[in-house]
Amino acid sequence: MATWGGLRPSYAKLGFDVGDLAQAFSPARALREVAAKRAILARHEPGVTYPDECGLDSEPFPCADLMNLAAVYSGHPDYQSEWKP
Question: I need a surface site. Which of 11, 30, 48, 83 has the fewest CB within 10 A?
Answer without folding.
Answer: 48
